[in-house]
C-alpha cells in the first residue's frame, strides 16, 4: 500500500464534521470558523522511547498522541474542532496502523474533533498532532492572571500517570493505574466550565510543581502548597500496596497527568470534585507546607525534555 | 539551555502579527480569523536523510521546512497567516538552531506568516510545520474542477530541484541549480492570482506526472502533455553542460520543485510567464506526445515516500 492509498484509507473518514468544507485529500483542508469565536492552536510531538515506551500498544499511542494535544485545548477552555496528524513510521504495518487509528479515532470521536489532514513519512517512529479549537472571543483561559488570595485547584490526583509508567516498566501492565498513563483523559468539560471563572489555567504535563511555576512566572506571583492536600486516589493506593509508599516526588514532579491546574478567585465556587492544593501569594517563589505546618524548601522540577536531569 | 528557555529564545518573536491575540508561551496560541474568510490548513514533516541530505545546511533545512508547507497554501490560493513548528533534535546545538531559525524566519518574513507556537523534543532530526492561511469564502483552489479543453500550465521549469539535489549529492554545491532544491520559492502570488481563474491547482512536490495525476483523478478527466513544451531554464542548461543531457524522467518525475501546476479554462488569459504544457481530455489517462507527434505510454510515477521504488 503506497503513501497515498494509506492516507485515503486511514484519514479519509472525517469529511462531514461541522465547519469542515474540505477534509483530507487536497493540498490543504478548508475550514469555516465560527463567527464570534477565536481559534486556539497547539501542536505536540511524541517520540518512541521518550514519550511512550517502545513496547507500547499502538492503540494507546494513538490515543495518547491526540490526548496530550486536546489537553492543551482544555487548558485554554477551547472547544475541540479540527486536527492534523503527521506519522513518521519505520515501515507500513497494517496491524499497527489499524491499532493506532483505533485509539486515535476513539478519542477524536469522544472529544468531537475532526481529522482533516495529515502527512505520512518513512522515518523513526514519531507522531505530531496539531489541534485547533474555538472559544468565544476573549474567553480563553491563560497562564497569566493568578492573583494573591486565589485558591490553587485540581480535579483528580497528580502522580497517577507517573505511577502508571513505573508499573508498566516493571512489567505490571494490568495495574489499574497504568490506564492513567496510557489513556489520559483531557479535561475538556472542566476547561469549558472554567471560562470566566478561573483566573489562570495550565495542564499538568511536566509535573505539578513545574507547571505551577509556569503560572506563577506568567502571573508574577508566588504560592504556598499544602502537602496534606494532595489526594491519594484508589488506583494510587493500589499501586502503593504493591510498590511501596508513593514518593512525594511522584506527585509533585511526575509528568503526564494531563490534569488541569487552575486558580480560582475567592468569590468563585469550587467546581465539582475540585481539591484546593494551596493558595497564591504576593511573595514570589513556591513554598510547601508539611503536615506539621513547617515550610519546606522546593525546586520547581518536572519533566523537561532537554534538561540534563531527565534525559539519558 | 533547557527546553523552555529554548522555546522562549527562538520562538518568542512573532507576537505582534495581525490576527495574533496570543503567540508562543501558553498552552496554545489564540488567533482571530478574518470575517468572510475560510481557513486553509496543512502540515508536512521533513526527516533527515530522506527529505534533505544529512549534511544539509541548517538554514536551508529551516527554509525548506516552511517552504514545502507554504507551497500547499499557494496551491489552495490562500494567504499565509500562522504557523506552528515542531523540532525533534538529537541535541540542542546553538549554532544549528540559530542557522535553522535564520532560514525559517527569512522565509516567514518574506511570506508574511507568524510563528505562533511550537514544540521541541529530543529525538532523531525531524521537523514538522503546520501552516494556516486564509482565503475569501468559497474561493480556495482545489485539485478537483479541471474540464476537457482546459490548458495545463506552470510558471517555471520542472526538474530543477531534482537536478539540484543530484548536483548536491555529487559534491557540486555551488551549482546554480542547487538553490532550487535548497530554497524552493512557494508561488504564493501566483496562487492568489489564480483565484477565480484556474479550474484546478496543485503544487508539484512528488513530480509533474504524479501530481498531474492527482488533478486528473480528482477531476475525473485525462490529459495529453507535449514533451516539446517542457521548458529548459538557464540553470538547467548549466547543469546539462556539466552533467550531461537532462533525462526526461528528471523533468517528469523529479520531485521537490514546489511549482504550481494548474488548469485554465479557454476563456482565461495566461498569467505572466506561464507555459502551456498540454491539455485536459475527456478520455481518462495520461498521454505524452513527443516531438514527432507520437503518443508515448506513461506511468504516472513520482516521489512516493512509501513506495518500493523510491525507498531504500
Automatic annotation (TrEMBL), chains A, B:
Q: Which residues bind substrate?
A: 51, 256, 303
Q: Which UniProt keywords apply?
A: ATP-binding, Kinase, Magnesium, Metal-binding, Nucleotide-binding, Thiamine biosynthesis, Transferase
| Residues holding Mg(2+) 5 | 206
- Residues reported to bind Mg(2+) 1: 44, 119
| Enzymatic class | transferase
Record-annotated residues binding Mg(2+) 4?
Answer: 27, 42, 72
Identify the InterPro entries for this entry: PurM-like_C_dom (IPR010918), PurM-like_C_sf (IPR036676), PurM-like_N (IPR016188), PurM-like_N_sf (IPR036921), ThiL-like (IPR006283)
A GO molecular function for this record? thiamine-phosphate kinase activity
Annotated residues that bind Mg(2+) 2 are located at: 44, 72
Q: One Pfam family for this entry, by name? A: AIRS_C
Q: Identify the metabolic or biological route this protein is part of.
A: Cofactor biosynthesis; thiamine diphosphate biosynthesis; thiamine diphosphate from thiamine phosphate: step 1/1
Role played = Catalyzes the ATP-dependent phosphorylation of thiamine-monophosphate (TMP) to form thiamine-pyrophosphate (TPP), the active form of vitamin B1.
Q: Under which name does UniProt file this protein?
A: Thiamine-monophosphate kinase
Amino acid at each position: 500500500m503506497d503513501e497515498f492509498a494509506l492516507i485515503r484509507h486511514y484519514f479519509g473518514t472525517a469529511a462531514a464534521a461541522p465547519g469542515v468544507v474540505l477534509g483530507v485529500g487536497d493540498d490543504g483542508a478548508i475550514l469555516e470558523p465560527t463567527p464570534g469565536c477565536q481559534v486556539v492552536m497547539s501542536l505536540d510531538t511524541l517520540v518512541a522511547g521518550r514519550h511512550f515506551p517502545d513496547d507500547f500498544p499502538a492503540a494507546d499511542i494513538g490515543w495518547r498522541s491526540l490526548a496530550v494535544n486536546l489537553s492543551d485545548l482544555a487548558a485554554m477552555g477551547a472547544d475541540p474542532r479540527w486536527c492534523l496528524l503527521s506519522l513518521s513510521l519505520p515501515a507500513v504495518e497494517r496491524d499497527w496502523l489499524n491499532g493506532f487509528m483505533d485509539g486515535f479515532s476513539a478519542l477524536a470521536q469522544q472529544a468531537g474533533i475532526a481529522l482533516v489532514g495529515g502527512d505520512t513519512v518513512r522515518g523513526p517512529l514519531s507522531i505530531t498532532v496539531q489541534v485547533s479549537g474555538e472559544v468565544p472571543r476573549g474567553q480563553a483561559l491563560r497562564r497569566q492572571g493568578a492573583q494573591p488570595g486565589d485558591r490553587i485547584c485540581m480535579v483528580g490526583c497528580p502522580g497517577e500517570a507517573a505511577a502508571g509508567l513505573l508499573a508498566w516498566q516493571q512489567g505490571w501492565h494490568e495495574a489499574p493505574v497504568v490506564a492513567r498513563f496510557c489513556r489520559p483523559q483531557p479535561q475538556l468539560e472542566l476547561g469549558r466550565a472554567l471560562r470566566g471563572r478561573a483566573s489562570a489555567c495550565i495542564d499538568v504535563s511536566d509535573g505539578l510543581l513545574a507547571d505551577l511555576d509556569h503560572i506563577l512566572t506568567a502571573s508574577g506571583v508566588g504560592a504556598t502548597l499544602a502537602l496534606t492536600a494532595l489526594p491519594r486516589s484508589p488506583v494510587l493506593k493500589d499501586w502503593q500496596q504493591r510498590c511501596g509508599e508513593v514518593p512525594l516526588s511522584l506527585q509533585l514532579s511526575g509528568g503526564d497527568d494531563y490534569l488541569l491546574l487552575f486558580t480560582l478567585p475567592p468569590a468563585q465556587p469550587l467546581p465539582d470534585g475540585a481539591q484546593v492544593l494551596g493558595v497564591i501569594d504576593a511573595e514570589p517563589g513556591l513554598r510547601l507546607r508539611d503536615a506539621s505546618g513547617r515550610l519546606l524548601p522546593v525546586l520547581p522540577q518536572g519533566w523537561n525534555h532537554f534538561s540534563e536531569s531527565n534525559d539519558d
